[in-house]
């Protein structure tokens, strides 16, 4: 077996991924708690990612090429189906949780443990840089946020919806996009309820 270069065994990490999803299930029905995680699109993509990482670095001679082809084909089908893409080079810690599928690209150098990611999130490199973000533990990515460039995101960081992060973020920080404003729109006196002008 080749030397492992991932931060932890992908197959062991997968057990924690599934357990984390199961913890979100509030039902007391044992059968539902047992089956539910495997019906989630996020777990399905993580299973493929973990198996691909394991196959890349163990390289069992007899099965490597065949298993690699099967994983790549299945991954392509799932990417089209769920709209989730996880780079094979991304080293993800245990307990990774994808909240909703759709429009997700994860291309970090590495990610720590117990990270949460929402839909329409992009993590990757910029056009001018070749490096990828390094993500700490317990990081939350809000809907539609973008984290790009060779930057470091510290532990316990929360990145708000639609925030664009291109610089290092220290630990225990909340990153927010421009705050929303309430705009009061008054109807003209000569407008009817439908908005038509008399």
CATH class of the largest domain: Mainly Beta
In whole angstroms, how far apart are the ends? 81 Å
What's the helix count? 4
Order of helices and strands: HHHHEEEEEEEEEEEEEE
Strand portion, in percent? Answer: 15-25%
How helical, in percent, are the residues?
25-40%
**What is the strand arrangement across the widest sheet?**
1-4-7-10-13
Looking at this structure, what is the CATH superfamily of the largest domain? Hexapeptide repeat proteins
What is the CATH architecture annotation of the largest domain? 3 Solenoid
Indicate the radius of gyration in whole angstroms: 21 Å
- Can you count the beta strands? 14
- Apparent shape: globular
**Do you know the CATH topology of the largest domain?**
UDP N-Acetylglucosamine Acyltransferase, domain 1
The biggest sheet amounts to: 5 strands, parallel
Count the domains. 2
Give a brief description.
With 198 residues, the protein is an alpha/beta fold. It has helices at 10-24, 30-39, 41-58, 64-82, and strands at residues 84-86, 91-92, 97-98, 104-106, 110-111, 116-117, 122-124, 134-135, 140-141, 146-148, 152-153, 158-159, 164-165, 174-175.
């Amino acid at each position: 077996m080749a030397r492992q270069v991932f931060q932890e065994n992908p197959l062991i990490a997968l057990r924690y991924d599934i357990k984390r999803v199961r913890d979100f299930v509030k039902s007391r029905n044992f059968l539902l708690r047992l089956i539910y995680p495997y019906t989630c699109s996020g777990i399905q993509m993580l299973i493929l990612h973990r198996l691909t990482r394991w196959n890349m670095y163990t390289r069992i001679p007899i099965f490597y090429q065949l298993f690699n082809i099967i994983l790549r084909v299945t991954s392509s089908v799932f990417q089209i189906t769920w709209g989730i893409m996880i780079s094979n080079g991304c080293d993800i810690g245990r307990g990774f949780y994808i909240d909703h599928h759709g429009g997700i690209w994860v291309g970090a150098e590495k990610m720590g443990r117990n990270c949460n990611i929402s839909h329409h999130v992009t993590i990757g490199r910029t056009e001018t840089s070749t490096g990828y973000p390094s993500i700490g533990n317990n990081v939350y990515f809000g809907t539609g946020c973008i984290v790009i460039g060779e930057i470091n995101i510290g532990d316990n960081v929360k990145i708000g919806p639609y925030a664009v992060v291109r610089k290092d973020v220290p630990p225990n920080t909340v990153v927010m996009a421009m705050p929303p404003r309430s705009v009061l729109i008054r109807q003209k006196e000569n407008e009817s309820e439908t908005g038509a002008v008399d």
